[in-house]
């Protein structure tokens, strides 16, 4: 056998046999340890046998289990027949097992207490061992029979090395056990001390403490049914509380009986097992493995919020219950990543492109220039003339360097576009119910430029063609009318085309002139923009026909309900004002042609015939003029309907924008600066157009006005015609002027009612008498091409006088200084007619421009095809 033992061909089973042989014929252990070369190397000290024979290892374990299950009494009973070494062995195999049992296997790391990794699957078991067991008492502070059985087994070691190892292992085990026992003993001592204290201080304290403990640890209380089963009833000792407790009523004792069955598990730290914030979902059970938790979570089918991990359950209140909204980080820490959204049908253009005739048309239109007179210390801020007029400063119209000048928004934008996504600051985002929208990825200061509305610049004719042919079936239009004859079609354009409408917008679309070219851009409103906000502006929608009116889903408080104007429901006073102006003109025409009551000429005189002939020709013209007036009126009515629809929100916004730029405030300020007594027409959609002397307020918006001491001088320099202000008092003293009406209010803020306007129209549009030509405000012209804000020139004054003379007595009336008696009546009438019509148109245009403010009078979205 020894030969076989040394044989290189022997396998593990063979070595098992060898072990048996060794037991029977004692031989030096060293020969046994000479394992065959095929065996695995030892994995631990004293493991020689186990590594050479897997079966042997298992057997050892079985033996230990068997011994452990032998009751103590049986082991210690003298009656029990004990196997003696001399006892005959029925099988050699049995004795082999016995001999192997004496060779215990040890894991050095576990013995030394350096084993740091415990597989998760053992955790629960370990957890139970440590936490779930009943509190030990000194009485049961003894080793279990199983362990005792192992330990008490006498061991005989042939090999001194082996003996030493066994001794060391036993000591290590003892150390571990004793430290645990020490802790338990200490805990028990503490409990005893508490019990004593309770006994001295009475039952009140006991019940108080008991309640508190029960309350605090209620959530950690578990039933120990399984433990109860395994533990003999006699060994389950509850801590004796006190004599007082014993005197409690039986009912209480019954309760206690129930409570006895429960024991408290101390609160333990839930260790993170992987990743940051692991186990932060509510149903996480620290005693289960990650995988088990995952399975449980899936089984529960609860939808979990997938946002960034939170501190344990923080914000849960916000995300559930009444709030029901997703968690959002504060804006100042929130920095969304730029995303690129691909939108079908969007051809990107980064700057305007003139199409067809539009280019030549634009060049034909002589653009006004503006120059600023700012000093470097002014920095082209609120007081900059260019800024007021919405002109961008550049080297041609501003003396400041780009660094000094603060009125170059489009240049700023260009620089910004070269940066990264955050610099650019806007991105397309899909909205819930309004298609795409645009949101801010950064903050914008009040009135700061955000993005340019650029696209193809087309003529009105081209726009109509496109609408009828190309965009006929489209639901979204990207057409923006920003000039009398120009339209920006941003179907191919910048991202600004995606900005949605809101009745309470946070941005404004404003037309600027940059290097003699019109450009449109979205500017932040007076509140500024926060990161993440959706950008909106008021479309001032022109739906062309009622068929194209779309429902507004802006969801704001003052939502008008539709993107277009609301259906006409009530005639406004503005409308009546416009109609009365037109009616007044008609009446005058009738007066001119003799049908009026004021005609004094003889019915059949040659003069009358001549006049009548002239009159009939003029009448035809007048009819045409009336038709034109009617067209103007219908347009005005349409606008009025829109005005009515927008009134509420405009008023609100006007209030909010008290410090922002309005057309009227511009005019008011300019007039104030030039010390004209002419009151400004307040941009208002009220039923009466109030004329007030306003105290200009400071404004921060680009192009806004601010009371400035230098403005007057600047305007003097800039506008020589303003020198004519000296003539103003004379003008205001003109007989028949509405000066009395205007100054009727004691506070100097008179109202102009439709009646007074009517009388004003009869009395030559007294405003027209102003002998100066104020600064021409860009973007205020009527759709017909006449500049509503340009006051009549000197010939208008003449016309007005002539008109006045007609009104005051026909051709026989007072003569104008520039209308000699010899002037042909025909030309007088022609002039009168055409000017009266022009005056009416102007009045209508002015009335329209009044509530619409700068640029906005013409800037509007267009949708749908003309009905
Ligand atoms: C210039 S586009 C704006 C971008 C558009 N949402 C898109 O997806 O392309 C104008 C169109 O957007 C929609 N829209 C914009 N604002 C809206 C609002 N407040 N309510 C409903 N629809 C709106 C309308 O269909 C409108 O014709």
From TrEMBL:
Species of the source: Aaosphaeria arxii CBS 175.79
Domain of life: Eukaryota
Composition-biased stretches (Acidic residues): 247-263
Stretches with biased composition (Low complexity): 7-16, 27-44, 163-173, 657-667
Keyword Phosphoprotein: no
Regions annotated as coiled coil: none
PROSITE patterns attached to this UniProt entry: AWS, POST_SET, SET
Annotated compartments: Chromosome; Nucleus
Polar residues bias spans: 677-690, 710-722, 747-769, 818-837
Protein name in UniProt: SET domain-containing protein
Chief subcellular location: nucleus
Gene Ontology cellular component annotations, sorted alphabetically: chromosome; nucleus
Domain Post-SET: from-to ranges: 548-564
GO BP field: methylation
Gene3D superfamilies: SET domain
Amino acid composition bias (Basic residues), ranges on this chain: 230-241
Residues covered by the AWS domain: 367-414
Keywords: Chromosome, Methyltransferase, Nucleus, S-adenosyl-L-methionine, Transferase
GO MF terms held by the record: histone methyltransferase activity
Disordered: annotated segments: 1-105, 130-182, 216-263, 592-611, 631-852
Positions of the SET domain: 424-540
């Amino acid at each position: 056998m020894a030969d076989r033992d040394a044989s290189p061909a022997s396998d593990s089973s063979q070595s098992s046999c060898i072990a048996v042989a060794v037991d029977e014929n004692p031989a030096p252990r060293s020969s046994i340890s000479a394992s065959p070369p095929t065996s695995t190397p030892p994995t631990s000290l004293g493991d020689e046998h186990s590594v050479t024979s897997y079966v042997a290892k298992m057997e050892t374990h079985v033996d230990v289990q068997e011994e452990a299950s032998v009751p103590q009494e049986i082991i210690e009973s003298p009656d029990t027949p004990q196997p003696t070494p001399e006892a005959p062995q029925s099988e050699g195999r049995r004795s082999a097992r016995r001999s192997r049992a004496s060779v215990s296997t040890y894991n050095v790391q576990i013995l030394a207490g350096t084993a740091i990794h415990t597989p998760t699957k053992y955790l629960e078991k370990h957890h139970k061992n440590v936490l779930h067991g009943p509190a030990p008492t000194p009485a049961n502070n003894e080793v279990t029979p199983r362990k005792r059985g192992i330990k008490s087994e006498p061991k005989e070691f042939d090999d001194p090395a082996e003996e030493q190892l066994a001794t060391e292992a036993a000591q290590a085990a003892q150390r571990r056990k004793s430290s645990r026992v020490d802790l338990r003993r200490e805990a028990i001592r503490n409990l005893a001390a508490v019990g004593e204290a309770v006994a001295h201080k009475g039952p009140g304290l006991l019940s108080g403490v008991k309640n508190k403990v029960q309350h605090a640890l209620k959530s950690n209380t578990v039933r120990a049914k399984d433990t109860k089963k395994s533990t003999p009833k006699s060994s389950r000792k509850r801590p004796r509380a006190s004599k007082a407790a014993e005197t409690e009523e039986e009912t209480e004792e019954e309760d206690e009986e129930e409570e006895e069955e429960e024991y408290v598990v101390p609160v333990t730290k839930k260790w993170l097992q992987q990743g940051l914030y692991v186990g932060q979902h509510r149903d996480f059970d620290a005693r289960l493995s990650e995988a088990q938790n995952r399975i449980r979570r899936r089984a529960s089918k609860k939808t979990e919020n997938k946002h960034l991990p939170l501190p344990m359950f923080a914000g849960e209140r916000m995300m559930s219950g009444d709030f029901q909204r997703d968690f959002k980080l504060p804006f100042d820490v929130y920095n969304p990543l730029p995303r690129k959204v691909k939108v079908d049908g969007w051809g990107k253009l980064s700057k305007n492109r003139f199409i067809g005739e539009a280019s030549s048309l634009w060049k034909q239109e002589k653009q006004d220039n503006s120059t600023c007179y700012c000093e470097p210390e002014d920095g082209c801020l609120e007081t900059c003339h260019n800024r007021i007029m919405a002109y961008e400063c550049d080297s041609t119209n501003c003396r400041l360097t780009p660094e000094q000048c603060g009125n170059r928004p489009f240049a700023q934008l260009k620089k910004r576009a070269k940066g990264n996504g955050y610099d650019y600051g806007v991105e397309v985002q899909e909205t819930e119910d309004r298609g795409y929208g645009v949101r801010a990825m950064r903050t914008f200061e009040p009135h700061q430029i955000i993005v340019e509305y650029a696209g193809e610049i087309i003529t009105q004719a081209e726009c109509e063609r496109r609408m009828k042919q190309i965009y006929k079936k489209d639901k979204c239009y990207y057409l923006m009318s920003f000039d009398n004859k120009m339209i920006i079609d941003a179907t191919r354009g910048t991202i600004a085309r995606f900005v949605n409408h809101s009745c309470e917008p946070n941005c404004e679309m404003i037309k600027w002139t940059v290097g003699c070219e019109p450009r449109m851009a979205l500017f932040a409103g007076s509140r500024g923009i926060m990161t993440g906000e959706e950008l909106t502006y008021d479309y001032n929608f022109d739906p062309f026909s009622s068929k194209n009116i779309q429902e507004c889903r802006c969801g704001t408080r003052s939502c008008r309900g539709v993107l277009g104007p609301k259906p006409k429901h009530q005639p406004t006073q503005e409308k009546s004002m416009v109609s009365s102006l037109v009616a007044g003109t008609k009446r005058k025409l009738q007066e001119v042609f003799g049908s009026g009551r004021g005609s004094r000429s003889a019915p059949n005189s040659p003069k009358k015939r001549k006049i009548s002939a002239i009159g009939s020709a003029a009448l035809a013209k007048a009819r045409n003029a009336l038709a034109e007036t009617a067209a103007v009126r219908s347009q005005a009515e349409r606008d009025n309907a829109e005005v009515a629809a927008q009134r509420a929100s405009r008023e609100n916004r006007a209030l909010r924008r008290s410090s922002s730029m309005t057309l009227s405030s511009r005019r008011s300020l300019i007039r104030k600066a030039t010390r004209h007594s002419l009151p400004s027409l307040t941009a208002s959609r009220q039923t009466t157009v109030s004329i007030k002397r306003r105290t200009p307020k400071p404004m921060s918006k680009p192009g806004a006005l601010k009371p400035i001491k230098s403005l007057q001088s600047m305007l003097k320099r800039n506008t020589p015609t303003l020198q004519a202000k000296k003539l103003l008092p004379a003008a205001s003293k003109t007989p028949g002027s509405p000066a009395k009406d205007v100054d009727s209010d004691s506070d100097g803020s008179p109202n102009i009612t439709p009646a007074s306007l009517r009388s004003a129209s009869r009395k030559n549009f007294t405003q027209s008498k102003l002998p100066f030509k104020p600064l021409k405000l860009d973007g205020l012209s009527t759709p017909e091409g006449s500049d509503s804000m340009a006051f009549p020139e000197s010939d208008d004054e003449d016309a007005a006088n002539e008109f006045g003379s007609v009104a005051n007595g026909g051709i026989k009336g007072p003569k104008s200084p520039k209308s000699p008696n010899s002037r042909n009546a025909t030309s007088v009438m022609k002039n009168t007619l055409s000017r009266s019509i022009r005056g009416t148109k102007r009045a209508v245009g002015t009335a329209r421009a009044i509530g619409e403010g700068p640029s906005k009078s013409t800037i509007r979205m267009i949708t749908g095809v003309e009905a």
